[in-house]
Amino acid sequence: MTGNDSARPANTLMQNQCIARLRATAAEITRVRGSGLVYQDAERTLDLLQQSIQVQSELVADACTQSTLEEACAASLQVLSWVLPVLGMVVRSSNLRIAFELYPPLKQLTNRLLADQSPVLLSSDWDYYPTTLLGLHCELVVIGLPATESSNALLIPLAGHELGHHLWSKRQYAITLGSSVTSLLLQKIRNEYWQQFLSDWPGLAVANVSKADLEQLPEYRQHVRRMADRVVRQLEEYFCDALALELFAESYLHALRYLTLPGRTERVEHYPSMQSRVHWLRIRSNQRGITVPEHFTDSFSMPRTVSAGLTLLDSVVEPIVPEVQQLAKSIVEGAKLPSRDHSCVERIADKFASFAPQDDEQSLTDIINAGWLACSKYQSESGVDPERWREIMNQLTLKTCEISRFHQKTAQRSVT
Description:
Layout: H1 3-6, H2 9-33, H3 40-62, H4 66-92, H5 103-114, E1 120-125, E2 131-132, E3 141-146, H6 157-170, H7 173-191, H8 194-200, H9 202-206, H10 218-248, H11 250-260, H12 274-288, H13 308-317, H14 321-334, H15 342-353, H16 364-382, H17 386-415
Parallel strand pairs: 1-3
Antiparallel strand pairs: 2-3
Protein backbone atom coordinates (compact mmCIF):
# COMPACT_ATOMS: atom_id res chain seq x y z
CA MET A 1 0.00 0.00 0.00
CA THR A 2 1.10 3.56 -0.59
CA GLY A 3 0.33 7.01 0.68
CA ASN A 4 -2.01 7.44 3.64
CA ASP A 5 -3.34 3.90 3.27
CA SER A 6 0.00 2.37 4.23
CA ALA A 7 0.01 4.32 7.49
CA ARG A 8 -3.30 2.97 8.70
CA PRO A 9 -2.68 0.36 11.39
CA ALA A 10 -5.96 -1.40 10.58
CA ASN A 11 -4.91 -1.91 6.97
CA THR A 12 -1.50 -3.21 7.95
CA LEU A 13 -3.08 -5.62 10.42
CA MET A 14 -5.57 -6.86 7.83
CA GLN A 15 -2.85 -7.38 5.23
CA ASN A 16 -0.49 -9.20 7.60
CA GLN A 17 -3.13 -11.50 9.02
CA CYS A 18 -4.52 -12.32 5.59
CA ILE A 19 -1.05 -13.26 4.34
CA ALA A 20 -0.49 -15.33 7.49
CA ARG A 21 -3.68 -17.33 6.82
CA LEU A 22 -2.62 -17.99 3.25
CA ARG A 23 0.89 -19.04 4.30
CA ALA A 24 -0.53 -21.43 6.90
CA THR A 25 -2.63 -23.05 4.18
CA ALA A 26 0.35 -23.26 1.84
CA ALA A 27 2.33 -24.98 4.61
CA GLU A 28 -0.48 -27.49 5.11
CA ILE A 29 -0.50 -28.25 1.38
CA THR A 30 3.23 -28.97 1.61
CA ARG A 31 2.67 -31.33 4.55
CA VAL A 32 -0.07 -33.18 2.68
CA ARG A 33 2.21 -33.50 -0.34
CA GLY A 34 4.72 -35.39 1.79
CA SER A 35 2.16 -37.72 3.37
CA GLY A 36 2.27 -40.43 0.71
CA LEU A 37 -0.37 -39.86 -1.96
CA VAL A 38 -1.66 -42.73 -4.05
CA TYR A 39 -2.50 -41.07 -7.36
CA GLN A 40 -0.68 -38.65 -9.61
CA ASP A 41 -3.90 -36.64 -9.91
CA ALA A 42 -3.73 -36.01 -6.17
CA GLU A 43 -0.38 -34.31 -6.77
CA ARG A 44 -1.86 -32.37 -9.67
CA THR A 45 -4.71 -31.28 -7.41
CA LEU A 46 -2.23 -30.00 -4.85
CA ASP A 47 -0.47 -28.06 -7.61
CA LEU A 48 -3.74 -26.31 -8.45
CA LEU A 49 -4.40 -25.52 -4.78
CA GLN A 50 -0.86 -24.20 -4.32
CA GLN A 51 -1.23 -22.03 -7.40
CA SER A 52 -4.49 -20.55 -6.09
CA ILE A 53 -2.89 -19.69 -2.76
CA GLN A 54 0.17 -18.17 -4.44
CA VAL A 55 -1.90 -15.97 -6.75
CA GLN A 56 -4.05 -14.75 -3.88
CA SER A 57 -1.01 -14.05 -1.68
CA GLU A 58 0.48 -11.87 -4.40
CA LEU A 59 -2.79 -9.96 -4.83
CA VAL A 60 -2.92 -9.20 -1.11
CA ALA A 61 0.75 -8.23 -0.93
CA ASP A 62 0.48 -5.95 -3.98
CA ALA A 63 -2.72 -4.16 -2.88
CA CYS A 64 -1.95 -0.44 -2.91
CA THR A 65 -5.21 1.12 -1.75
CA GLN A 66 -7.70 0.36 0.99
CA SER A 67 -10.36 -0.74 -1.50
CA THR A 68 -8.07 -3.10 -3.42
CA LEU A 69 -6.79 -4.53 -0.12
CA GLU A 70 -10.30 -5.16 1.15
CA GLU A 71 -11.25 -6.83 -2.13
CA ALA A 72 -8.11 -9.00 -2.11
CA CYS A 73 -8.59 -10.06 1.51
CA ALA A 74 -12.27 -10.83 0.98
CA ALA A 75 -11.38 -12.88 -2.12
CA SER A 76 -8.76 -14.77 -0.11
CA LEU A 77 -11.46 -15.96 2.29
CA GLN A 78 -13.38 -17.37 -0.67
CA VAL A 79 -10.24 -19.11 -1.90
CA LEU A 80 -9.58 -20.62 1.53
CA SER A 81 -13.18 -21.78 1.88
CA TRP A 82 -12.76 -23.68 -1.39
CA VAL A 83 -9.19 -24.93 -0.89
CA LEU A 84 -9.62 -26.53 2.54
CA PRO A 85 -12.46 -28.95 1.66
CA VAL A 86 -10.58 -30.02 -1.47
CA LEU A 87 -7.40 -30.46 0.57
CA GLY A 88 -9.35 -32.68 2.96
CA MET A 89 -10.52 -34.74 -0.02
CA VAL A 90 -6.90 -35.13 -1.15
CA VAL A 91 -5.94 -36.47 2.28
CA ARG A 92 -8.83 -38.94 2.33
CA SER A 93 -8.24 -40.07 -1.27
CA SER A 94 -5.31 -42.12 0.02
CA ASN A 95 -7.26 -43.68 2.88
CA LEU A 96 -7.49 -47.46 2.75
CA ARG A 97 -11.29 -47.29 2.94
CA ILE A 98 -11.30 -46.14 -0.69
CA ALA A 99 -11.92 -48.81 -3.32
CA PHE A 100 -8.77 -48.03 -5.31
CA GLU A 101 -9.70 -50.55 -8.01
CA LEU A 102 -12.50 -48.21 -9.11
CA TYR A 103 -10.28 -45.21 -9.68
CA PRO A 104 -8.68 -46.06 -13.06
CA PRO A 105 -11.94 -46.88 -14.87
CA LEU A 106 -13.71 -43.90 -13.26
CA LYS A 107 -10.92 -41.55 -14.30
CA GLN A 108 -10.98 -42.94 -17.81
CA LEU A 109 -14.75 -42.50 -18.01
CA THR A 110 -14.53 -38.95 -16.63
CA ASN A 111 -11.82 -37.82 -19.02
CA ARG A 112 -13.69 -39.23 -22.00
CA LEU A 113 -16.93 -37.65 -20.84
CA LEU A 114 -15.30 -34.24 -20.40
CA ALA A 115 -13.08 -34.66 -23.48
CA ASP A 116 -10.02 -33.54 -21.54
CA GLN A 117 -7.42 -34.79 -19.06
CA SER A 118 -8.72 -33.01 -15.98
CA PRO A 119 -7.34 -34.20 -12.64
CA VAL A 120 -9.87 -36.57 -11.07
CA LEU A 121 -10.06 -37.14 -7.34
CA LEU A 122 -12.14 -39.94 -5.81
CA SER A 123 -12.32 -39.63 -2.05
CA SER A 124 -14.35 -40.48 1.01
CA ASP A 125 -16.39 -37.77 2.66
CA TRP A 126 -18.04 -37.23 6.03
CA ASP A 127 -21.27 -36.24 4.36
CA TYR A 128 -23.78 -39.04 3.92
CA TYR A 129 -24.78 -37.94 0.43
CA PRO A 130 -22.19 -38.03 -2.39
CA THR A 131 -20.73 -34.64 -3.14
CA THR A 132 -19.02 -32.73 -5.93
CA LEU A 133 -16.77 -29.84 -4.98
CA LEU A 134 -17.13 -27.00 -7.46
CA GLY A 135 -15.25 -23.78 -7.22
CA LEU A 136 -12.24 -22.03 -8.64
CA HIS A 137 -11.01 -24.73 -11.01
CA CYS A 138 -13.50 -26.10 -13.53
CA GLU A 139 -10.76 -28.43 -14.78
CA LEU A 140 -10.59 -30.22 -11.42
CA VAL A 141 -13.09 -33.04 -10.76
CA VAL A 142 -13.53 -33.91 -7.08
CA ILE A 143 -16.05 -36.59 -6.10
CA GLY A 144 -16.69 -37.67 -2.53
CA LEU A 145 -18.55 -40.81 -1.51
CA PRO A 146 -19.82 -41.25 2.06
CA ALA A 147 -17.04 -42.71 4.21
CA THR A 148 -19.27 -45.58 5.30
CA GLU A 149 -19.75 -46.65 1.66
CA SER A 150 -16.53 -45.53 -0.07
CA SER A 151 -15.33 -49.13 -0.45
CA ASN A 152 -18.68 -50.23 -1.90
CA ALA A 153 -18.14 -50.69 -5.64
CA LEU A 154 -21.85 -51.08 -6.24
CA LEU A 155 -22.41 -47.41 -5.37
CA ILE A 156 -19.99 -45.99 -7.92
CA PRO A 157 -22.91 -45.18 -10.29
CA LEU A 158 -23.72 -42.34 -7.89
CA ALA A 159 -20.51 -40.73 -9.09
CA GLY A 160 -22.24 -40.38 -12.45
CA HIS A 161 -24.77 -38.04 -10.85
CA GLU A 162 -21.95 -35.99 -9.33
CA LEU A 163 -20.19 -35.78 -12.69
CA GLY A 164 -23.42 -34.27 -13.95
CA HIS A 165 -23.05 -31.37 -11.52
CA HIS A 166 -19.52 -30.80 -12.79
CA LEU A 167 -20.64 -30.80 -16.43
CA TRP A 168 -23.60 -28.55 -15.67
CA SER A 169 -21.30 -25.98 -14.08
CA LYS A 170 -18.44 -26.24 -16.56
CA ARG A 171 -20.66 -25.90 -19.63
CA GLN A 172 -22.87 -23.26 -18.02
CA TYR A 173 -26.15 -24.95 -18.84
CA ALA A 174 -27.90 -22.82 -16.22
CA ILE A 175 -27.20 -19.76 -18.37
CA THR A 176 -28.25 -21.60 -21.53
CA LEU A 177 -31.63 -22.53 -20.04
CA GLY A 178 -32.18 -19.30 -18.12
CA SER A 179 -34.03 -17.39 -20.83
CA SER A 180 -36.51 -20.15 -21.70
CA VAL A 181 -37.14 -20.88 -18.02
CA THR A 182 -37.90 -17.22 -17.30
CA SER A 183 -40.24 -16.95 -20.30
CA LEU A 184 -42.19 -20.04 -19.28
CA LEU A 185 -42.32 -18.89 -15.67
CA LEU A 186 -43.79 -15.51 -16.65
CA GLN A 187 -46.32 -17.26 -18.87
CA LYS A 188 -47.38 -19.56 -16.04
CA ILE A 189 -47.73 -16.68 -13.59
CA ARG A 190 -49.84 -14.59 -15.96
CA ASN A 191 -52.06 -17.39 -17.25
CA GLU A 192 -52.46 -19.75 -14.30
CA TYR A 193 -50.92 -18.43 -11.08
CA TRP A 194 -51.61 -14.69 -11.07
CA GLN A 195 -53.81 -14.64 -7.97
CA GLN A 196 -51.35 -16.82 -6.10
CA PHE A 197 -48.51 -14.50 -7.11
CA LEU A 198 -50.48 -11.54 -5.76
CA SER A 199 -51.20 -13.36 -2.50
CA ASP A 200 -47.47 -14.01 -2.05
CA TRP A 201 -46.93 -10.23 -2.36
CA PRO A 202 -49.92 -8.57 -0.60
CA GLY A 203 -48.69 -5.11 -1.51
CA LEU A 204 -49.09 -5.85 -5.21
CA ALA A 205 -52.87 -6.07 -5.11
CA VAL A 206 -53.08 -2.85 -3.13
CA ALA A 207 -50.85 -1.09 -5.65
CA ASN A 208 -52.98 -2.35 -8.56
CA VAL A 209 -49.98 -3.97 -10.20
CA SER A 210 -50.80 -5.41 -13.61
CA LYS A 211 -49.39 -8.48 -15.30
CA ALA A 212 -47.32 -6.26 -17.57
CA ASP A 213 -45.57 -4.80 -14.52
CA LEU A 214 -43.84 -8.14 -13.84
CA GLU A 215 -41.11 -7.16 -16.29
CA GLN A 216 -41.16 -3.45 -15.55
CA LEU A 217 -40.78 -3.09 -11.79
CA PRO A 218 -37.26 -3.93 -10.51
CA GLU A 219 -38.34 -5.62 -7.27
CA TYR A 220 -40.69 -7.98 -9.12
CA ARG A 221 -38.17 -8.73 -11.84
CA GLN A 222 -35.78 -9.69 -9.07
CA HIS A 223 -38.38 -11.96 -7.47
CA VAL A 224 -39.03 -13.67 -10.82
CA ARG A 225 -35.27 -14.16 -11.28
CA ARG A 226 -35.06 -15.85 -7.90
CA MET A 227 -37.91 -18.16 -8.84
CA ALA A 228 -36.29 -18.94 -12.19
CA ASP A 229 -33.03 -19.78 -10.41
CA ARG A 230 -34.88 -22.33 -8.25
CA VAL A 231 -36.37 -23.90 -11.36
CA VAL A 232 -32.94 -24.17 -12.98
CA ARG A 233 -31.48 -25.77 -9.86
CA GLN A 234 -34.22 -28.39 -9.94
CA LEU A 235 -33.50 -29.05 -13.62
CA GLU A 236 -29.86 -29.60 -12.76
CA GLU A 237 -30.83 -32.55 -10.54
CA TYR A 238 -32.89 -34.11 -13.32
CA PHE A 239 -29.96 -33.65 -15.71
CA CYS A 240 -27.59 -35.34 -13.28
CA ASP A 241 -30.00 -38.25 -12.80
CA ALA A 242 -30.32 -38.65 -16.57
CA LEU A 243 -26.55 -38.56 -17.06
CA ALA A 244 -25.98 -41.22 -14.40
CA LEU A 245 -28.72 -43.34 -15.98
CA GLU A 246 -27.10 -43.05 -19.41
CA LEU A 247 -23.71 -44.00 -17.97
CA PHE A 248 -24.71 -46.82 -15.63
CA ALA A 249 -28.21 -47.97 -16.65
CA GLU A 250 -29.95 -50.23 -14.09
CA SER A 251 -27.11 -50.04 -11.60
CA TYR A 252 -27.78 -46.33 -11.02
CA LEU A 253 -31.37 -47.09 -10.05
CA HIS A 254 -30.20 -49.79 -7.63
CA ALA A 255 -27.52 -47.55 -6.10
CA LEU A 256 -29.88 -44.58 -5.74
CA ARG A 257 -32.49 -46.70 -3.97
CA TYR A 258 -29.91 -48.28 -1.66
CA LEU A 259 -28.52 -44.96 -0.50
CA THR A 260 -31.63 -42.77 -0.36
CA LEU A 261 -34.83 -44.72 0.21
CA PRO A 262 -37.39 -43.69 1.38
CA GLY A 263 -36.14 -40.21 0.48
CA ARG A 264 -36.64 -36.93 2.26
CA THR A 265 -40.21 -36.11 3.15
CA GLU A 266 -39.71 -32.34 3.24
CA ARG A 267 -39.48 -30.14 0.13
CA VAL A 268 -37.31 -27.14 -0.55
CA GLU A 269 -37.84 -24.87 -3.52
CA HIS A 270 -34.51 -25.51 -5.23
CA TYR A 271 -34.69 -29.31 -5.08
CA PRO A 272 -37.19 -31.76 -6.62
CA SER A 273 -38.90 -34.41 -4.54
CA MET A 274 -37.52 -37.95 -4.68
CA GLN A 275 -40.90 -39.12 -5.93
CA SER A 276 -40.62 -36.76 -8.89
CA ARG A 277 -37.03 -37.78 -9.60
CA VAL A 278 -38.04 -41.43 -9.49
CA HIS A 279 -41.02 -40.72 -11.76
CA TRP A 280 -38.81 -39.17 -14.43
CA LEU A 281 -36.16 -41.86 -14.04
CA ARG A 282 -38.84 -44.46 -14.72
CA ILE A 283 -40.03 -42.61 -17.82
CA ARG A 284 -36.49 -42.24 -19.14
CA SER A 285 -35.66 -45.86 -18.33
CA ASN A 286 -38.64 -47.06 -20.32
CA GLN A 287 -37.57 -44.90 -23.25
CA ARG A 288 -33.99 -46.19 -23.10
CA GLY A 289 -34.75 -49.90 -22.61
CA ILE A 290 -33.51 -49.92 -19.01
CA THR A 291 -35.24 -52.32 -16.65
CA VAL A 292 -36.64 -50.56 -13.58
CA PRO A 293 -36.11 -52.62 -10.38
CA GLU A 294 -39.17 -54.19 -8.84
CA HIS A 295 -40.98 -51.93 -6.33
CA PHE A 296 -38.64 -49.07 -7.29
CA THR A 297 -41.25 -46.32 -7.24
CA ASP A 298 -42.98 -47.68 -4.15
CA SER A 299 -39.71 -47.55 -2.20
CA PHE A 300 -39.82 -43.76 -1.96
CA SER A 301 -42.11 -41.61 0.18
CA MET A 302 -44.20 -38.69 -1.01
CA PRO A 303 -43.37 -35.27 0.49
CA ARG A 304 -45.62 -34.46 3.43
CA THR A 305 -46.64 -31.05 2.14
CA VAL A 306 -46.22 -29.13 -1.10
CA SER A 307 -46.72 -25.38 -0.96
CA ALA A 308 -48.49 -23.39 -3.64
CA GLY A 309 -45.18 -21.80 -4.54
CA LEU A 310 -43.64 -25.21 -5.17
CA THR A 311 -46.62 -26.17 -7.32
CA LEU A 312 -45.89 -23.17 -9.54
CA LEU A 313 -42.18 -24.01 -9.81
CA ASP A 314 -42.92 -27.66 -10.54
CA SER A 315 -45.30 -26.66 -13.34
CA VAL A 316 -42.40 -24.85 -15.00
CA VAL A 317 -39.90 -27.64 -14.37
CA GLU A 318 -41.91 -30.53 -15.82
CA PRO A 319 -42.11 -29.42 -19.48
CA ILE A 320 -38.32 -28.92 -19.56
CA VAL A 321 -37.22 -32.18 -17.91
CA PRO A 322 -37.30 -34.15 -21.21
CA GLU A 323 -35.03 -31.50 -22.73
CA VAL A 324 -32.34 -31.89 -20.07
CA GLN A 325 -32.66 -35.67 -20.22
CA GLN A 326 -32.03 -35.54 -23.97
CA LEU A 327 -29.09 -33.24 -23.33
CA ALA A 328 -27.53 -35.87 -21.05
CA LYS A 329 -28.04 -38.54 -23.71
CA SER A 330 -26.36 -36.44 -26.39
CA ILE A 331 -23.35 -35.80 -24.14
CA VAL A 332 -22.79 -39.51 -23.43
CA GLU A 333 -23.27 -40.44 -27.08
CA GLY A 334 -20.87 -37.69 -28.13
CA ALA A 335 -18.23 -39.08 -25.77
CA LYS A 336 -18.64 -42.53 -27.41
CA LEU A 337 -18.74 -44.25 -24.03
CA PRO A 338 -19.71 -47.93 -23.91
CA SER A 339 -23.32 -48.56 -22.99
CA ARG A 340 -24.50 -51.39 -20.82
CA ASP A 341 -24.43 -54.71 -22.75
CA HIS A 342 -27.04 -57.19 -21.47
CA SER A 343 -25.16 -60.27 -22.66
CA CYS A 344 -21.91 -59.15 -21.02
CA VAL A 345 -23.70 -58.33 -17.79
CA GLU A 346 -25.31 -61.77 -17.69
CA ARG A 347 -22.01 -63.51 -18.40
CA ILE A 348 -20.14 -61.61 -15.67
CA ALA A 349 -22.97 -62.17 -13.16
CA ASP A 350 -22.86 -65.91 -13.86
CA LYS A 351 -19.14 -65.90 -13.06
CA PHE A 352 -19.83 -64.03 -9.82
CA ALA A 353 -22.40 -66.65 -8.87
CA SER A 354 -19.63 -69.26 -9.06
CA PHE A 355 -17.43 -67.05 -6.79
CA ALA A 356 -15.05 -66.11 -9.61
CA PRO A 357 -14.20 -62.75 -11.20
CA GLN A 358 -14.45 -62.18 -14.93
CA ASP A 359 -11.03 -62.69 -16.52
CA ASP A 360 -10.96 -60.26 -19.44
CA GLU A 361 -11.40 -56.58 -20.23
CA GLN A 362 -14.89 -55.24 -19.51
CA SER A 363 -16.51 -51.83 -19.28
CA LEU A 364 -17.12 -50.32 -15.85
CA THR A 365 -20.87 -50.13 -16.44
CA ASP A 366 -21.11 -53.82 -17.34
CA ILE A 367 -19.08 -54.87 -14.29
CA ILE A 368 -21.17 -52.79 -11.87
CA ASN A 369 -24.44 -53.92 -13.41
CA ALA A 370 -23.28 -57.53 -13.12
CA GLY A 371 -22.57 -56.99 -9.43
CA TRP A 372 -26.09 -55.74 -8.82
CA LEU A 373 -27.61 -58.49 -10.96
CA ALA A 374 -25.72 -61.20 -9.08
CA CYS A 375 -26.82 -59.65 -5.77
CA SER A 376 -30.50 -59.96 -6.64
CA LYS A 377 -30.54 -63.02 -8.89
CA TYR A 378 -28.37 -65.55 -7.09
CA GLN A 379 -28.44 -64.71 -3.38
CA SER A 380 -31.49 -66.82 -2.50
CA GLU A 381 -30.05 -69.98 -4.05
CA SER A 382 -26.57 -69.42 -2.62
CA GLY A 383 -27.58 -70.08 0.97
CA VAL A 384 -25.38 -67.15 2.02
CA ASP A 385 -26.64 -64.42 4.34
CA PRO A 386 -27.79 -61.40 2.22
CA GLU A 387 -25.35 -58.97 3.82
CA ARG A 388 -22.44 -61.38 3.41
CA TRP A 389 -23.49 -62.15 -0.17
CA ARG A 390 -23.52 -58.44 -1.02
CA GLU A 391 -19.99 -58.08 0.36
CA ILE A 392 -18.80 -61.08 -1.70
CA MET A 393 -20.31 -59.52 -4.83
CA ASN A 394 -18.61 -56.25 -3.96
CA GLN A 395 -15.22 -57.94 -3.69
CA LEU A 396 -15.74 -59.81 -6.97
CA THR A 397 -16.75 -56.55 -8.63
CA LEU A 398 -13.58 -54.84 -7.40
CA LYS A 399 -11.40 -57.77 -8.47
CA THR A 400 -12.97 -57.77 -11.93
CA CYS A 401 -12.24 -54.04 -12.26
CA GLU A 402 -8.63 -54.74 -11.35
CA ILE A 403 -8.32 -57.64 -13.81
CA SER A 404 -9.99 -55.62 -16.56
CA ARG A 405 -7.49 -52.83 -16.02
CA PHE A 406 -4.62 -55.34 -16.24
CA HIS A 407 -5.88 -56.67 -19.58
CA GLN A 408 -6.35 -53.14 -20.88
CA LYS A 409 -2.80 -52.09 -19.99
CA THR A 410 -1.36 -55.32 -21.37
CA ALA A 411 -3.17 -54.79 -24.66
CA GLN A 412 -1.86 -51.21 -24.86
CA ARG A 413 1.73 -52.37 -24.32
CA SER A 414 1.47 -55.06 -26.97
CA VAL A 415 0.31 -52.45 -29.50
CA THR A 416 3.19 -50.11 -28.74
